[in-house]
Amino acid sequence: MRIRAKYFLIILLVFSQISCTKWLDILPPNGLVRDEFWKVKEDVEAVLMSAYETFSSMDRTLFLQGELRADMLQGGVNQSSDEQNIMENNIYPDNPYCDWSKFYLVIDYCNEVIKNAPQVQKIDDTFTDFQLKSLVAEAYYLRSLTYFYLVRIYGDVPLVLEPSETDNADFYLPKTPGKEVLNQIVSDLQANYQFAPSGGFSTIAENKGRASKAAYDALLADIELWRFNYEDVLKYVQRIEKNDEFKLLPSSRWFELFYPGNSLESIFELQFDENLNQSNNTYNLTRRANQQYTPSQKAIQMFGFEYSNEIVRGQDATIAKYGDNDFAIWKYVGQAADGQSVRSGDNQLSANWIIYRFADVMLMKAEALSQLQRFDESLAIINKIRDRAGVSMLSVANNTVAFEDAILEERARELAYEGKRWFDLLRLGRRNNYARKDKLIEIIVSNASSTQKRVLAARLTNPLGWYLPVYATEIERNKNLEQNPYYNF
Amino acid sequence: MKRIRTAILFLTALCNFFLANAQESIIRGRVVDKSDNTVIPGANIIEYNNENRVVNGTITNVNGDFVLKMNNSSNTLKVSFIGYKSQEIEADPTKTIIVKLESSNVNLGEVTVSAISKSRNNLTNIDDRDKASSSVKVDLAEMKDVGVLSAADALQGRISGLDVISASGDPGSGSQLVIRGLSSMGNNQPLIVIDGIPQFRISENFDLTSANSEDISNLINVPVQDIKSIEVLKDAGSTAIYGSRGADGVLLIETRKGRMGKVQFDYQYKYSLNIQPPAIPMLNGDEYVMLQLEEWHNNRGIFDIPPQIAYDKDYQDFYNYSANTDWLAEITQNGKTNDHYFSLSGGGQKTRYFTSFSYVNEGGTTVNTNSKRFSTRINLDYSLSKKLLFQIKFNYTNNNTNGNLKVNGKNVREMAYIKSPNMSIWEYDAFGNPTGEYFNPIHSYQGNGDVYFNPVAVADLGKNNNKSSKLENTFMLQYRMKDWLTFRETVSFQYGGSKSKSFLPYNAIGADWLSWDINMASENNSFNRSLRSESQLAFSSPFKSDKHSLSGAFSWVTNQLANEWMTVQASKTPSTDIQDPAIDPQINWIGNGPGESRTISGIANVNYKYLDRYMIQTILRADANSSFGIDNRWGIFKSISVGWRFSNEPFLSSWDFLGDSKLRFSWGVSGRQPNNVYARFSTYASTGNGSYMDNPAIAPTSIQLSDLRWATVSSNDLGLELNLFNNRIYLQGDIYQKVTTDILFDNYQIPKSSGFDELSYFNGGEMSNKGWELMIDGIISKTKDLRISVNFNTSHNTNRFNKLPENFNPERSTSIGNGQYPLRVQEGEAIGSFFGFRYLGVFPSDEDAVAKDADGHIKHDSEGRPIPLRYLDTYTFKGGDPIYEDINHDGKIDLNDVVYIGDSNPDFIGGFGTVVKYKHFDFSASFQYRLGFDIINGIAIQTEGMNDRNNQSKAVLNRWRYQGEDQAGMLPQAYMNHPANNLGSDRYVERGDFLRFNNVKIGYELSKNLCEKLKIRRANFALSARKLMTYTRYSGQDPEVGQDASDPFWIGVDQARTPPPKIFTFSIAVGF
User: Fold this and answer.
1) Whole-number Cα distances in Å, B435 to A25, A454, B24, B319, B425
2) Interacting residues of B288 by C-beta distance below 8 A, sequence separation 6+
3) What's the pLDDT tens digit per position in A60-87?
4) Which residue from B605, B613, B446 is spatially nearest to B546, judged by alpha carbons?
């Protein structure tokens, strides 16, 4: 009997050697898993930084979205055919330029922070309420900014407000009308304004490189201008003006906006530092040897010594001349406003990307004032900008159309190649029920080759065509998405 | 109590070894053959007590000597040996006993083995004969001498319902096996079980570069000679026992074991010649240049002729660009294979052993490709006592494969097809003197030198070596507790490691020193290990009754798999002699990844049989796997099979012609688990460059899968097995249905608005396979001198997507273009259907390229001019362009004109063959066929497009050249960068039906008398040929196109550039 008992013992041993559940719980050896994450406030900050980092990595996209379809850019021989097609309005949904995935990656990271940060506070005792709300406010800001770009680029887009944490999430969201998206982000921004940081970081880079109350105001003003709520624009710009920290730089220091950057005038700018392996893409985009993008004929006439009296922000500052009809965009490659000292060494890829600066916001205010028929106040602002730029004062006839044109022109000069022009044009075209659609077409067509002009004009007649199509694979993957009808062939 | 007594006896026997006991007596002796006095090693000497029970025993050593300490001198001793009459001897301790054994009259060579199989599957503990589920067993004894190298080759066309497709003709590349149609997404390969041990499936992140099909075939790279039999389990009635891994079918491979008897040595040598079938004839240099000039002319009109295709004597590279190089011939060779196999087997009553060594050196049909394989196997059975059996299996395989490098995604054969033939292999200077270097310009007429490389240079200089070895050990201890109850504990571990090294020296490609791919070296190391334990309690009828019979087993299995890999890729090593990526170069990429998965399974099966006529078998298996979250961790798999052996019914006893026959039905559920074991976790890792300003940036890189579960395959099978006319005819037929639910999609794409590109896995949808199978074996002649048997099998399968996952968009790749097929799946249709344009020939002239209405009338615009036919908005068709049917008659060829144009699932697969034995000669032949499927001739798309600078096939010589030319079968005009002269259309869809003469063999066996004279046991010679002939209307290289349903949009495009070669083999086998 003992023998039998022995064998039963062996069997028992084999069967019981394992506590099933524990034995089967194997975690990946590299990388943190969700269950182990979201424990301390540093986790929250790290995901927020991913959102900033990813947003920054889109600087090339922000540049091109703001300039490619407008009139200040000319493609070089190394321009990709996809980008050339966008430029010439030969847009098909399979153009990779229409891919919005990176925007939504930023949104997902922000959603992660917004959802999980409050849970972390329950675990981490050192995580104060103030810190929590401040970090979440930054996430709301980045999400709103991203949606604002999306609405301006695509019109209507899916509104994703929850992180894609598990496969139970609904990935198949339909489009939300742009208006509703804007309502959502405006209310998010208003609700979190009070928690936004206001210059409390230890370095200037962090104060400029992260969302602040002023950045909130600038974005809100920008949105309201886009929505033509002019009184609101004034309200938000005034809040910035009351803040002593932001001033126009003097003329002599105008180029410091771009080198070394983080100037007094800057409100929010994406930080790059090649030393930290945080390289921008604007350097290679506008570097002459790369032959991707150069100033258009119109820009050359706007800034070149031979054509214009722009000194401060003209040739050698906004653009540089290398030879006859050989110009380059200088803002992101130059080290000084001399058109010669190119950024070198670790500075090459370190130029920041300015999202909002004081001059931009002031011109927003001027635009709002002019639409409210407060022409004198508006003109005063325009001339303040012109004064700083060292160009003669303007006198503009007291009607909104004249002011519209003057401000548009001034914005083009002041904010050239800062990713603003196309959206400024769209604002012009959309205003008062497309009253000045023809002006928009006229401006854009002026930059096209003679053979292209007619085709281009025809293509821009339908305002739906001002927005990009939803990328083909995205339409394929999400049955609930409707293509922009302009691109349904 | 008997048990205890036996145990005590056993123990005392052991004790007696050390203690001298007065009662015992030591007997010494020698056993010899009575006729010639030769010694007999391994003979048994057994001591019986007065109850005639075995109490002690020994065997003779190599000299035939034995020493036995008898427990009791009054006991009797018996000497026995197989092939001899046993003999009782008188125990006399005082002298050395000479035992002369008389050989028995039974001639071992002619022992007839009963047709009733008694083998058992270990996991189910059921006689093969009683199985009520669908499976087929193939005895591989006869395949030994045929020129097959792997088990997969041997199975091709021989088993109904099993589709075996050779992936490529390159050495070391294997086959794909599909059982009863595609039933899941991704890897559809069956589970391979060798001697009861499931072989590890290579995890997805194991090796980034190699294809899955090749890994699988390596698993069954067991030398064919080692394999005793292969059994294919087809329905869930039998695969449910393998639970989560059985969904795609199971292949059970049994290796040979030692048998009791004299030691046997066997040696076999095979020499094979592998001959590549002729390549697709390509244009020579002059024809190519003519084509290029025409392409440019048709596009541009007047143009500047590039000097490389101008035959300008003053051009410095004139001699380099005026060759007529047949690139394919330059890299093709005849492969030679040497195969040595040696085995040793034998055994006595206590020990049985089988050992084999195999060495194969296979030469590929492309220059510088070969593979060497060494393997050894030891199977050892040791009976510790009558009740206790100890078994060891040891297996080691070492592979060393040299292949060609892929450069920029293209292998040398692909490049040889498209490389401009007017370029020379070797460089000449401006005066026509050879420089001794490969001609590898940085920029050639075709493009950059590292994209359009010199295939001969890369084949000669590029190195791509893979060394892998695998070690497998199995220990089994079996204890028979009672006659009807056995406990078995099996522990097995497998260890596999592989190392790949590649090096591309700078002079193999044309690139300057700044280029990133100069002197590129890479190294990949990986290893897998697995540990498996199985505890089993098997039982048979505890009650003695002829009517009832019960058997079954309860098993508990734990399984651990782990793998790790690491890859380094670097370039710009300082010299071509330094081929190690770790030494001083520029590192381009370093990656590594580990993985581990664990499974626990409990298995129960009970089989009951009544009156040897009615059978019922049930299986229940529960699997828990670490790949799943806690909620979905356990999977339950089950099956029930019933059988009726009607041939044993009394009312059929008058039917003399009816042999053992049965009707059976089975139902069961088995599953499929994900390969990537960590897929369910959402991992947080550094994003982008890892920081923003001075702050670290960490974010989720994947979506957590809380809904991941097993894919389940449930199947029904109704089968009939008939044995007629005294086993002369054997018939087996099956009707089945297989339904996969919760299909496991790998890398399931989701909208990017989620912030992510894909879910690692997604369960959804439903797919079904329905079909029938028939196998017939017949023996036509069965006389002493002549034995003729024939076999035939056929099977039909229909695949259908019953349901697509919710939110699944059934259209992909909605853009169209040259060589592109729009991809679609539809509910209710089979996976692998083609959609594209209908090709109707070539417009003879510009006037013909006009839009027509439904009645065929030319459409006119408001001014009465004919409306030209357009492609999208970008191109107007001209004379010489292809005609695509304008399905909706809107004057525009676009996505709306896409129609169904074919399907890549075969309607029928099968094979037939015969084996003839006449005296000492034997002959066998086998054929394989696949019918009713279409192939997209992907090679033709690339070699008949005439819109780029790639070389084209000779078929393009018959092309449109001038306005009004209208000849039957003419191809469109040559036109550089034409946007639409090569759209995905039925122009390239061809019937793939084929009948292949797969194997033929003639063998001769030396007669017994001659063998005896030569002092050998046996000897035979054989000549065989494989893939000798293929009857097909398919115009491509080979109609065997794989079914690799890695995604639901898979279509069967033939991209194979190295078709399977013809193999001629001579073999000689000698046994001692």
Assistant:
1) 64, 57, 90, 12, 11
2) B420, B421, B422, B951, B952
3) 999 999 999 999 999 888 888 889 889 8
4) B613
A132 Cβ neighbours under 8 A, 6+ residues apart = A41, A44, A117, A118, A120, A121
- The helix (H) or strand (E) run that includes residue A224 is helix A213-226
CB–CB contact A474 B752 (8 Å): yes
Show the beta-strand stretches assigned E in B764-872: 766-782, 786-803, 811-812, 823-824, 833-836, 839-842, 870-871
| Mean pLDDT computed over every residue of chain B | 82
Residue A407 backbone phi and psi in degrees, to 5: -70, -40
Residues 6+ apart with CB under 8 A from B126: B120, B551, B605, B607, B617
**CA proximity to B370, closest of B325, B404, B346:** B404
With CA atoms as reference, the chain A residue closest to B896 would be: A489
* 3-state SS class at B461: helix
Q: How far apart are CA B205 and CA B216, in angstroms?
A: 15
Instruction: Identify whether the C-beta of residue B623 lies closer than 8 Å to the C-beta of residue B243.
Output: yes
Dig out the tokens for A142 from the structure.
Answer: 């980045």
Three-state secondary-structure class, residue A266 = strand
pLDDT, tens only, B663-710:
999 998 888 888 777 888 888 888 888 889 889 999 998 899 888 888
Report the distance separating Cα B157 and Cα B154, nearest Å. 8
Contact of B295 with B946, CB cutoff 8 Å = yes
Mean pLDDT of B986-1010: 88
Chain A: closest CA distance from residue B877 (Å)? 20
Non-local CB neighbours of A413 within 8 Å, separated by 6+ positions? A302, A303, A310, A313, A318, A389
For residue B853, what are its two tokens? 């209405």
Interface probe for B, chosen from A85, A167, A175, A273 (most Cβ of B below 10 Å), is A167
What ipTM was estimated for this complex? 0.90
DSSP string, B649-662: SGGGTT-TTB-S-E
Q: Based on C-alpha coordinates, what's the Rg of chain A?
A: 26
Q: What letter does residue B142 receive in the DSSP assignment?
A: G
- Cβ contact, residue pair B753, A158, below 8 Å: yes
- What single-letter amino acid sits at B960? W
Q: E-assigned strands of B404-514? A: 426-428, 434-438, 463-482, 485-504
The answer to whether the bond into B41 is cis (omega within 30° of 0) is no
Question: Between A437-445 and A421-434, two packed helices, what is the crossing angle to 10 degrees?
Answer: 150
Closest CA to B122 of B250, B280, B285: B250
Measured at the alpha carbon of residue B841, what is the angle toward residues B837 and B847, in degrees to the nearest 5? 105
Nearest chain A residue (CA) to B534: A14
Token pair 């339904």 in the structure block, residue: B739
Position A118, amino acid: P
The HSE-up count of residue B445 (CA atoms within 13 Å, CB side) is 27
For A398-459, the DSSP string reads SSHHHHHHHHHHHHHHHTTTSS-HHHHHHHHHHHHHHTTHHHHHHHHHTTS-HHHHHHHHHH
Query: Could you tell me the two tokens for B815?
Result: 């853009």
Selected for mutation to probe chain B from A35, A53, A353 (highest B CB count within 10 Å) is A53
Token reading at B772:
């029938």
Q: How far apart are CA B1065 and CA B1062, in angstroms?
A: 10
Burial class (CB in 10 A: 0-12, 13-18, 19+), B2: exposed
Per 3-state DSSP, chain A is made up of helix, strand and coil in percentages (nearest 5) of 55, 5, 35
The pTM (predicted TM-score) of the whole model is: 0.79
User: What is the C-alpha to C-alpha distance for residues A108 and A104, in angstroms, rounded to an integer?
Assistant: 6
The pairing of strands B921-931 and B994-1005 is: antiparallel
Which residues in B335-353 are b (16+ Cβ under 10 Å) and which e?
bebebebbbbbbbbbbbbb
* Angle in degrees, 0-180, between the axes of helices A400-414 and A375-388, rounded to the nearest 10: 20
